Amino acid sequence: MYPVMIDGPRVWLREFDDGDLDATMAIVGDPEVTKTLSFETPTSEEQAAVLATHLDKARSKPRVEYYLAAVEQGTGELIGMVRLTLAWPRAGDLGYIVRRDRWGLGYATEIATAMLDFGYGRLRLHRVQASCEPDNPSSERVLRKLGFSFEGRLRDHTVRGGSFHDSLQYSLLAPEWRQPRPEAPPSPPDESNQATVAG
Ligand SMILES: CC(C)(COP(=O)(O)OP(=O)(O)OC[C@H]1O[C@@H](n2cnc3c(N)ncnc32)[C@H](O)[C@@H]1OP(=O)(O)O)[C@@H](O)C(=O)NCCC(=O)NCCS
């Protein structure tokens, strides 16, 4: 499906284009943003190459990656990015990033909500998974607010800065999406940080 445009209450999700390099660098060029992500802070040249790859993937058929820009409706600024990568069977992997000056305003929750509506609705997904590092409580909180369930701790799952990092794995199934639920409890660091994947 291309192009995709999704409306949220305060943001639009749209396809990236060639002119988005500086706006994306304002997000992922910030080391504070990438410090708990699975990639290093890119240079502008590296980010240009990443953007070009995503532009290609967006037009590929079948399309297996929906990597969309989140545009703040009030200002027209690109303030975040969200990715849903598809896998068999009817599964997706979710990731999101918000520009640092917009943290704490509910944007990640809103952006992910719009993408999940699209994933479970238009794409008919059954399972969406997402992961975050143990020392990323705001991302874990976003997942819990969305209704994701903790599945386990993936040991040495990513590499950054020359060392391996664990990930906390979460998932959400289609029948669980948009179900009424009690207010999400705050992330209990002990619960997720102590669990490990058996094996
Ligand atoms: C993680 C990230 C996407 C969150 O974006 P955001 O727009 O600030 O998220 P929201 O405002 O929707 O929700 C954040 C929640 O975390 C909570 N939070 C923030 N810091 C926290 C902390 N140190 N401990 C616990 N909760 C925290 C906020 O209070 C909020 O919860 P609330 O609505 O119950 O108050 C953003 O910080 C970011 O882009 N980080 C860098 C990239 C990243 O880590 N992406 C996720 C990859 S897994």
UniProtKB/TrEMBL annotation:
Polar residues bias spans: 190-199
Disordered: annotated span: 176-199
Alphabetical list of SUPFAM superfamilies matching this protein: Acyl-CoA N-acyltransferases (Nat)
Superkingdom as given in the UniProt entry: Bacteria
Organism this protein belongs to: Natronosporangium hydrolyticum
GO molecular function per UniProt: acyltransferase activity, transferring groups other than amino-acyl groups
Protein name: GNAT family N-acetyltransferase
Domain N-acetyltransferase stretches: 11-175
